[in-house]
Amino acid sequence: MSDAILFVHTMKVPAAEMHDFTRALQSAVEFVEANGPHLMVEAYVDESRERAYSFQLYPDSASIRAHWEMSDPYIRDVMKHASVERLDIYGHPDDSVMQHIRELSAAGVEVSVTPNLTGFHRLAPPAPD
Which UniProt keywords apply (predicted)? Predict the structure, then answer.
């Protein structure tokens, strides 16, 4: 079984915030591409529905915690312009990650967690510096 964990965020982005949101999101993704532990990040924006979707693949729970710590200022900047409506998690996050997820759920974010059964990926983790 893989330790990889996929997060799929669905965000509401008011039309008046769309420009600032996309600028902040692009900056955040550039930062994590250069510094983050992610195996993959993809973001999609549907302006007509005022929604954005972020797909983030992590090698394991430790990398999720590392991302949260290093990216906090970028995450806060993005979230000034949007709200998370739903978080779908695929994989087996550990207890410390799930504690944070339970806090999101208590704050009104719809959360689902689906354990993985089987699979593979051909993505290589970033080479060490």
Answer: Kinase, Transferase
